[in-house]
Amino acid sequence: MRLNRRMTATVATAAVLGLTLAACGGGNTDGDTGGEGGGNQVEVFTWWAAGSEKAGLDALVGEFETQHPDIEFVNGAVAGGAGSAAKDLLQTRLQAQDPPDTFQAHAGMELQDYIDAAQIEDVSDLYDEFGLTDAFPADLVDRLSSDDGAIYSIPSNIHRANVVWANPTVLEENDIDPEAEYADLDAWIADLEKLDAAGVTPLSVGTTWTQVHLLETVLLASLGAEAYNGLWDGSTDWEGAEVIAALESFETLMGFTNDDRDGLDWPEATQMVIDGSAAFNVMGDWAVAAFEEQDKALGTDFTAAPVPGTDGTFDFLADSFTLPVGAPHPDGAKAWLETVGSLEGQVAFNQAKGSIPARTDADPADFSEYQQTAIESFSNDTIVSSLAHGAATPVATLNAISDATSKFTTGASDLAGFQSELAAAAQG
Amino acid sequence: MLNKLRRLGPPLLLLAPSLILVGVFVYGLIAANFTTSLTDNHTAAQATGQEPAVFVWFTNYLDLLASEDFQHSLMNLVLYTVVFLAGTMVMGFLWAWMLDKPVKGEGLFRSVYLFPMAVSFVASGVVWRWLLNSNQDEQASGLNRLFQMVGLDALQNNWWNNVTFGIIAIAIPAIWQLSGYVMALFLAGFRGIPNELREAARMDGASEWKLYRYVLFPQLSPVALSALIIIGHMSLKAFDLIMSISKPANYQTKVPAVDMFVFKSSFDYANAAAVGSILLIIVALVIVPYLIRTNREEKR
């Protein structure tokens, strides 16, 4: 009996040792194959972890696997905080010189910090190699290029920021024609006053970034495309009389908004229009997904139009992919960028995500009703860069403008103070 | 000499791992943070060494302290801390005082009051963001709606969206969460006072007020000090509750910890480090006298 117990113990020990060794061995073998296959993979870092964004990424990966079956896709998506969690982690990884093979970033000036820090590569030769220069509108390529003609990312999709969404039922109840096309902000403000007098929230808005979003469309409407662009390259004077007029309109518009704005993000603000508790909402065209998810039809249940005074201008923002310096698998990254820029990749991605392709050669018939109007405007309108979404300025400038805007809309600064803070922010 | 080494050697050897870890990861990083705060490292390019960063000594500190926005953050921090401290101390003491009387169901009440502490600041912040909705009258919800339902319409206000005093509204959930903890501390204090002391005081003819004033309060003062220090340093580091009720860009609820976060996300490492150092100094002003006092008492 005693002998038996000792036997059992010995056998058990041997078994445990054996398993441990096997486990180690297994680990090693896996590690080796992983290392050997390393040349044929690509880690794609995004914040597309849920909803229509994840659907878009999945569609893009499907296309990538058809085009490059020999390269393994490694999903580096980080969820949380509308991308702020991902940007935080990315900042750390880039500083530690452990970059992903490619990462998502807003196209335009938001990339400037990475460029200055020599963390991403110039990909303009890939534009030639993949034939993208002619496929994208000239205005867009111009907006993406830095001063010396270098381009640092390839856009996967385009969104329009200067869209105003309205609830036609609320408008009709208050004797306002939902079909009306407003020539400028003043005509719009006249109708907002009517709604305000009737006790409806005329315009819904959310927390600071949505207020900056509203501010940028007001600046665009009031100054026009050329002077608006001038705000970012220094040729328009922030202290000038035109800017004062624009900021006065902004002040008037903010007076028509809901009181609980600072606690809301864009879905809640847009929901107010869907529910009919507010008449208008200015938000980018990703908001169309919120309407469609609740089975609302464009034209009958909601309307979409360029923000009054910005007709003929397309205030763009884009997600794009980069080539980090020192990417462990540059060939994989280039293959990914090729798919991102390709017609098939852009169509698959944007059908699922609800944005529109950056390429002008996509067939509009493949897309939804709203997307078709956006595609048409994108190829005909003047394209300008969005402020609130990182296309027009570097992050630090945007943060300073956001701070100034929040200070103004909570009543801590007056118009003159706001204007001088904006001027200081734009100078950097 | 050898003897001394033999006596000190083993304890030093045992302490070495934690000394080294604390040295590197706490004090080493504090030093690194302080060094960064003395440079003009305000851009991503400087952070990665593409462009030179030079020492500017205390310029960042002076600029920060002179800026109206940072003064607003500091003012918010002071308001928040004062209200948070006063609220938790008063509520905690009252609850402990009531529970110290022989009451039925003491265990139940104790758990009920202590329980909010088990909820994370982020989770309660999400609920309180809704309760503290600033809409009034027809659109009201949360507490403003409750005021309407009980006929106290005049009490409606815009809570944390008030530009000067908004931060006080965020102290309300903080008080709700930590009063129970202060209660537990005071209750332990009350229970630590021997019954004989009370009896002796009563025998000597002390009134109930005199009993508290001259017998119980002096015995409770070390507990009160501990509670002040613990709540005080939590309040100075407040970040998660503010972030989950408000947003980092909202001017009305800015505190230094939020400024630090915004600076860091703008690649402005020097200013972020300077704000961090300022916070550390403020917390040290609270903690260090307490440590010195405790140390002196232990030696006595």
Give a summary of the structure in a few sentences:
The complex is a heterodimer of chains A (428) and B (300). Chain A has 428 residues and is of the alpha/beta class.
Count, helices of chain B: 13
Derived from helix and strand composition plus strand pairing, the structural class of chain A reads alpha/beta
- The count of DSSP E runs of length 2 or more, i.e. the number of strands of chain B, is 0
What would you call the structural class of chain B?
Answer: mainly alpha
The major pleated sheet of chain A works out as: 6 strands, mixed
- The arrangement of helices and strands of chain A along the chain is HEHEHEHHHHEEHHEHHHHEHEEHHHEHH
Would you write up a description of this structure?
The complex is a heterodimer of chains A (428) and B (300). By secondary structure, chain A is of the alpha/beta class. Chain A folds into 2 domains: 41-158 and 317-380, Periplasmic binding protein-like II (D-Maltodextrin-Binding Protein, domain 2, 3-Layer(aba) Sandwich); 163-315 and 388-427, D-Maltodextrin-Binding Protein, domain 2, CATH 3.40.190. In chain A, 53% of the residues lie in helices and 12% in strands. Chain A is built from 19 helices and 10 strands. In chain A, the strands form 2 sheets. In chain A, strands 1, 2, 3, 4, 9 and 10 form a 6-stranded mixed beta sheet that branches. In chain A, strands 6-7-5-8 form a 4-stranded mixed beta sheet. In chain A, helix 2 links the parallel strand 1 and strand 2 (72-75). In chain A, helix 10 packs across helix 12. The longest helix of chain A is centred in the first third of the chain and has 35 residues, at 2-36. The radius of gyration of chain A is 26 Å and the shape is globular. The mean pLDDT of chain B is 88. Chain B is flat. Chain B has 300 residues and is mainly alpha-helical. Chain B has 13 helices and no strands. Chain B has a domain at 29-66 and 266-300. Classes of the chains: A alpha/beta (428), B mainly alpha (300).
